[in-house]
Amino acid sequence: MNNHSTPEVAAAAPRTIDIVNRSLKRRYGAERRFRFYGLAAIVLSIVFLALLFVSIVGKGYSAFWQTSVRLTVFFDPEVLKQDTLVSADYGALVRESLFKMFPQVEGRQDKRQLNALVSSGAVYQLRSMALKDPEIIGRTVEVWLPAGADVDMLIKGHFRRDLPEDERRVSDKQIAWIDRLAAEGHLERKFNITFLTTGDSREPELAGIWGAVSGSFFTLLITLVLSFPIGVAAAVYLEEFAKKNRWTDLIEVNINNLAAVPSIVFGLLGLAVFLNLFGLPRSAPLVGGLVLTLMTLPTIIIASRSALKSVPPSIREAALGVGASKMQMVVHHVLPLALPGMLTGAIIGMARALGESAPLLMIGMVAFIVDIPKGVTDPATVLPVQIYLWADSPERAFVERTSAAIMVLLAFLVVMNAGAIILRKKFERRW
Fold it and tell me: Which of 141, 164, 199 is the endpoint of a domain?
């Protein structure tokens, strides 16, 4: 009976090759699905990133152009007396020039609307001209002056003309005056050099980013000078000299934990220690650099240790074998080979510090700063905080300034990350 059943059982049992083929089909199908999901995730990420960039550029590119009004200004000697050039009423010169162009305008309300066509910052430009060349007093000069923010928004198409008058910031009379100025060649869009060379202002047409850029530069300078040597020294000690015991393990765990601490915690630490305890100046790049140093140190230490670990043990053994001391081995052989990776980590840490705003808000760098900082102890703000301040402003003209400042910040970040990639590609060694 058993001899007759054996062939039937053998015939019913599946063959090994069939089992393998079926499993291969499932595995190939799973692999295709995994590749599709990965490709779809990449494409989706690129699409969202492109939409973000298009949105930022679309809103911000117009900030690099500013509408200007050409006025024929008479530098009246009765107004500009030699001993009062600094405090003279330059606004009267602008008003007189406008009233000559539009003599039919009467009434206080209409005159106020006419004066609003020119920015209040025009007086500073006229004062600068008079102080630079006092011989201009008594002469009539054609000057291009910045237009008001609402005029600029109308020319750029951000304000709709077809809305009812009570629903827009520019009246029908002002639109008629603007159209006349444009038809007569007294209204043009020029490159907005003010945006790139001045500090913050309450008036959007006068607001610039140079103060924030200078503050970011001084803050990052302090951060780099402190964090890079300290971070590299700590990494070299932990990796090359420190004994492996529970204390070094505890230090390594804390360094890794500090790299994940929210940045605002470092801001609270800076507020408690650097401002309240040590009494350092508030809103100064010095304090901002100290806070960002604490924040970037874990990143630099971790990157530097990884760079040191990537150096082959044979380098160390060869140096020690020819009689070099451990210090000579580290300084003359290991450190130069690990330096490119350390620089890459430092640049990435600096890029992260450049984009931080939360810790700097805690130490007062959110203050309204008009003057350009000249040193690390002067009151200053930084680009991320400047963006935060402008984003909170209700005026429509600050929207394009906010987007333009984001473009500048992204450009700095791209340059810094590109520098890290170039350094890594140029100096890395494959073992």
Answer: 199
